[in-house]
Write a structure and sequence with these properties.
72% helix, mainly alpha
């Protein structure tokens, strides 16, 4: 039996999803704000600021999500987990780690060492891959009708 997520865990999950979409949207302004040949527009500067502060917010929310996940974790012997549960755990753990690493790399890039942007971009690619697997698994559970998908959609619970 899988444990249900709390309303707070679900809300934080979807909040991070929205913030990450916002990060993707505002990321196109970043190169324009660092172009030495053209002055950035006011819109680019605002988007850059939103991108930076939303990244810090994502880091804080992910830290809260980790604490909540740890607080509600019930230890089970790993040998009793089905293969799909193990894979889900790996993908979830990978997403948490990749998002936190990207936040860290973004912070380092912004405030300490600009060349870390390569690492920041690398973790974006990792997040895209893991999120694609996560979304594909959600679609699988939706079509299978096993109730797993419904656990993260508040109005279907």
């Amino acid at each position: 039996m899988q444990r249900p997520y709390t309303q707070l865990q679900i809300a934080l999950h979807w909040f991070v999803v929205l913030l990450i979409f916002g990060q993707w949207y505002t990321s196109s302004a970043i190169p324009r704000t660092h172009n030495p040949l053209l002055p950035p527009s006011e819109s680019d500067l605002i988007q850059h600021a939103i991108h930076t502060y939303a990244g810090v917010l994502i880091g804080g929310v992910m830290a809260i999500r980790l604490m909540l996940a740890h607080a509600s974790y019930r230890r089970r012997p790993p040998m009793h987990l089905a293969l799909t549960e193990r894979l889900a755990s790996i993908v979830h753990g990978g997403l948490y780690l990749a998002v936190l690493c990207q936040v860290t790399a973004g912070f380092v890039t912004t405030y300490l060492w600009g060349p870390a942007r390569v690492i920041h971009a690398f973790f974006w690619d990792v997040i895209l891959i893991l999120a694609s697997v996560h979304i594909a698994a959600a679609a699988y559970h939706l079509t299978r009708g096993d109730g797993v998908f419904r656990r993260m959609i508040p109005w279907l619970r």
